[in-house]
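Can't attach files on this board, so I'm pasting raw text. These are the components:
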Amino acid sequence: MENIKVPEEFKVLISNRDKRYVRQCSIDCVVFGFAQNQMKVLLVQWKYLDKWTLPGGFIHQDEPIDQAANRILKERTGLEKLYLKQFATFGDPHRSRSKDMQQMLDAMGIFLPEDNWLFERFISIGYLALVNFDRVTPNTDLLSSVCGWHNLSEIPDLMFDHTHIIQTALGTLRKQLYTEPVGKYLLPEKFTMPELQKLYETILGEPLDRRNFAKKISSMSSVKRLKERKSGGAHRAPYLYTFI
Amino acid sequence: MENIKVPEEFKVLISNRDKRYVRQCSIDCVVFGFAQNQMKVLLVQWKYLDKWTLPGGFIHQDEPIDQAANRILKERTGLEKLYLKQFATFGDPHRSRSKDMQQMLDAMGIFLPEDNWLFERFISIGYLALVNFDRVTPNTDLLSSVCGWHNLSEIPDLMFDHTHIIQTALGTLRKQLYTEPVGKYLLPEKFTMPELQKLYETILGEPLDRRNFAKKISSMSSVKRLKERKSGGAHRAPYLYTFI
DNA sequence: CTTCATTGTGTATCAAATACACAATGAAGC
DNA sequence: GCTTCATTGTGTATTTGATACACAATGAAG
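---
Top answer:
Structure tokens for the assembled complex are below.
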């Protein structure tokens, strides 16, 4: 961590608050993906610091908050359209933990007065996103060194209250499991029933009966079985399904 | 509306933003009550203006948002403890409609520069409250002339996006009807089954079968039938129930 | 003491959730 | 080619909950 050179433009960006943004408000996104039979969450690692956070950002003064969340995620994932819903707003006065922020700035060799906008309290609007893992191209930005997927079961130490935000998002997702077509967003266009079941089991954290699950899903009008089967694997080839 | 005398203290309050408050963030509360077989919503009428709004306010810099909502409602209802839950955050850039604000200030004879904080965009966190109608003492404050109950079915013209906020709150309440003990908060401590049923029918906007409703409610472990009956009314005296 | 609107209760039926078993498939190994 | 075996596809019995519906009990009003 010694001998860091922080580009001058970072310092300017950080020292002078950009007036285009709504004050004391931020957005944090919990982006869920599904791959290798695991739920994945997109995380960002900050430059000059070991710690991670959720992808997030600020809101332009003339921008609806949903649109801000879309813009932030387009930068991070490359995706224009994704399942994205506000799920809760986090407003504990100590949630942004200026200690974390201080540590980050120290690491970057930046020293700011106590009244700098970065030390202000932020109220953050939480957004839940579901994406097709394979379509995402995680992108870093000026201030982040890594942007990538982590297994939901192996989330590293996060800054601020982001662990809590992920837990709340997961709770929301579980509640919505049978009312929203989550498979439509998390799986590829064509998928098998065992794949869909594994997704549900992973989100719920409990095994489901194979036959009853198929029955329940088949009764949903939005799921259609195709004529095709998925060949290639060992054993009997399962049918492919798709969301209409 | 002519010849209005706005106290000097109002002007000071409005012209100089109070730095104790979080910027560009506000709280709006949808307070539901139940009386005379009607759902009621608490509304505030502003001085020098015909229009109404939801009771709301700002967040102290050192205050959790839930606590801010509690404080705001304590001032308006006199109640310390009530059912209160965040249900959505409203962040359309035009939601605060500066035209409404301008009209209000004009009516008060106050003229502010365009960059005054009151013309800033506000992101508002919506809170849903359930209260026992009889225990509420609606209070006005410096800027409001009336604070009182309105039938949900006869809401007057509201400023900003508050009609939309009420609709969203009602949708949330309907979804929670069978998972949250709403009767516990909306009805007096002891109530009859017909009263509880009428509450549910009013919230849902549809009639329910008397016998099936009683069966369903009786299966909830949180509702207990008392030995007492409610006498006084004509016809057979119904049993009293209570939430444990 | 009759009337009548209202309350309390029970039962038949239908739909959904759950528990559970056996036949069909298809790659792998002999 | 035939057997093996993990996996997929399907069906049925049972339980639970939701819905539809009917009749007896109550208690004030007349």
